[in-house]
Amino acid sequence: MRLFLGCLLLLIYRLTAAPQPNVVVLLADDAGWGDYSFNGNRQVATPHIDSLAKAGAHFDRFFVQPVCSPTRSEFLTGRYHRRLGVYGVSTGQERMNLDEKTFADSFKAAGYVTGIFGKWHNGSQWPYHPLARGFDTFWGYTSGHWGEYFDAPLEHNGVMKSSTGYIVDVLTEKALQFIDRNKAKPFLCYVPFTTPHSPFSVPPQDWARCKDRPITQSATNPKDEEPAATRCVWAMLENQDRNVGRILAKLKELNLENDTIVVYFSDNGPNTSRWTGGMKGKKGTTDEGGVRSPLFIRWPGRIAAGTQVKPIAGAIDLSPTLHALAGVPRVGDKRVDGRDLSPLLGKGTDADWAPRHLFQTWGSNISVRTETHRLDNAGNLFDMIADPGQTTPIQKQQPELAKELVAEVAAWRKEMGIAAPAGGKGKTKGANGPGNAVDPRPLAVGYREFPITMLPARDGEPRGEMRRSSKAPNSSYFVNWTKPGDAAVWNVEVVTAGTYVVALDYTCPPGDVGATLEFSFEGTLLKGKVTEAWNPPLITDQDVVPRGEHGESLMKPFRTMILGEIRLEPGKGELKLRATDIPGKSVMDLRRLTLTLK
User: What integer pLDDT is reported at residue 6 of this predicted model?
Assistant: First the structure.
């Protein structure tokens, strides 16, 4: 009888409970606060993105981290990225620890269908892959950069697929198909756009509209602005805005507009020097301009149109806020650093909202933000109300506040295990934070539930005279493979004993065909030969701004060859690919190695 009554009450609750809202999260890549017409940029038109702010809430001071993967991990978990094992953006440093749970885990457990369409950037191999972190469907790429924006090879649930068209248009279409398929169910649709991250490639019609547009609002340091890059960013954002409009139109067409929470923000400050409303800093810095992002949240009927939220907030707040708005219980028992912002969405401000401090970190650089002040990485204190451009340090005028915040940064450094910059105060050498050393955590190979393991060049290490095609590992392949002492090496853990099919994605000119390859792991060897030439030209006609030496490689289509089959036993060690015989000038250019468990 008790069981019957319990089931009856549960049924009554489900029949009378409010329907679960859908959630659509739109994330720009490398767009700054000042890149939107809503925020005062008169040089660019972003009407669809702006409409989210006008029809919902906009946050006056919303802060993220200085670079991509730290912000993404904080948004996914509600926890600061250093707690998650995320301390870089490539070579494995972008992976979240496996005992962490994402908000997608929670929504999936609550019955939502979950999908991601775009850039993941928190781990490539299972169990770091998005399908292991709460998502049912994935279309896009898992790395931080992607070198092809037209007709790009993209991953669909672990398998590489070809595509036709501009990458943002293609992935938006995949998101629209997901929404259409799941219109009768509660869904979570995460669309992390590729733009305006470099390379600076954009559809011709968008570039034609922007290429001669005058720059009337300059970067804070005008001499650092590159006009062509600024104009390409406008073109990329206007293309992105059009795709946001497609998503909003689909929700309206399906009569889901009032039942869907839509969130829009960016993952760091602008990737070039361009207009930021006079703020100091850009991507990679912990100053205001490097970490301030737009945040727009629309939920018709629940969030009043034109709501302005003035208290500071951050990426760590989004997970607890989405859980609260949707009424979804959180999966996982780790302490959350963020706050539920939903009380602010009803009123915009709340007199009982406790003051707080937010930390921005990149490498050993740390800045802390209060409601009114920022202590920068060099220990300078700024009044962000009176001096939003951080032009005049005031630690001598407010020594007690400066002392308090310096002590907080020291305690934060200790808690997070962050060493002080060399020489004490000041910035870490270089803009790339931790650097590109390969992360010591092994890459897993051979999970039965995800039998295809891709090992791209970005996750490996070139040995000997082999090198990457670019200083940016995320969009690179191995080149200069000319000697028997050269090798491509991945630190892996084979988790399942079995037979694996080994495949290579390569290019090789006709005169170099015939090299003998040796694949090895823990004393087990597989040998094969390069028997077919494949030497397509580099793609050089897609970019409106040439790629620099620190950016993405010039790309080309790679061909897959099957090296053979090998029996592997469980264990950790170096998986190595080298050439024992090189009849030509080089062996090949190598983009990735793929192992498939039979």
Answer: 40
* Long-range own/partner contacts, residues 166-173 (CB < 8 A, 24 or more apart): 166/202, 166/203, 166/239, 167/194, 168/193, 168/194, 168/195, 168/236, 168/239, 168/240, 168/243, 169/203, 169/239, 169/243, 171/117, 171/118, 171/139, 171/140, 172/117, 172/243, 172/246, 172/247
State the number of CA atoms in the 13 A half-sphere of 375 facing the CB.
24
Distance of alpha carbon 552 from alpha carbon 198, whole angstroms = 8
Among residues 70, 78, 62, 74, which one has the least CA distance to residue 288? 62
Helix, strand or coil, per DSSP, at residue 477: coil
139 with 171: CB under 8 angstroms? Answer: yes
Write out pLDDT tens, residues 392-426.
999 999 999 999 999 999 999 999 999 887 655 54
Alpha-helix residue ranges (DSSP H) falling in 202-305: 204-210, 227-253, 288-291
Report residue 174: phi and psi, to 5°: -65, -40
Cα dist. 226→36, 472, 546 in Å? 19, 20, 12
Cβ proximity of 38 and 54 under 8 Å:
yes
Q: Average pLDDT, stretch 490-519?
A: 98
Task: Determine the Cα–Cα distance for residues 106 and 110; give it in Å rounded to an integer.
Answer: 6
Tell whether the torsion through CA atoms of 506, 510, 514 and 515 is positive or negative. negative
Domain 443-597: give its CATH architecture: Sandwich (2.60)
Task: Give the mean pLDDT of 441-463.
Answer: 96
Q: Mean pLDDT in the chain?
A: 93
CATH class of 18-347: alpha beta
CA distance 285 to 554: 27
CA-to-CA distance for 212 and 289, rounded, in angstroms? 26
Q: Is the peptide bond before 127 cis (omega within 30 degrees of 0)?
A: yes
CA quadruple 167, 172, 178, 181: dihedral sign: negative
| Claim: this prediction has a pTM higher than 0.85 | yes
pLDDT at 77 over 70: yes
- pLDDT given at position 420: 82
Query: Which positions ≥6 away from 58 have C-beta within 8 Å?
Result: 38, 294, 295, 296, 307, 308, 309
pLDDT digits (tens, 9 = 90+) for 398-407: 999 999 999 9
Q: Hey, where are the domains in the chain? A: 18-347, 364-416, 443-597
Q: How many residues does the chain have?
A: 598
DSSP-derived secondary structure for 336-400:
P-S---HHHHHHS--TT-----EEEEETTEEEEE-SSEEE-TTS-EEETTT-TT--S--TTTSHH
d(CA 116, CA 128): 14
Do the domains at 18-347 and 443-597 have one common CATH topology? no
Q: Are 197 and 145 a contacting pair, CB within 8 Å? A: yes
Span 15-42, pLDDT tens digits: 444 689 999 999 999 999 999 999 999 9
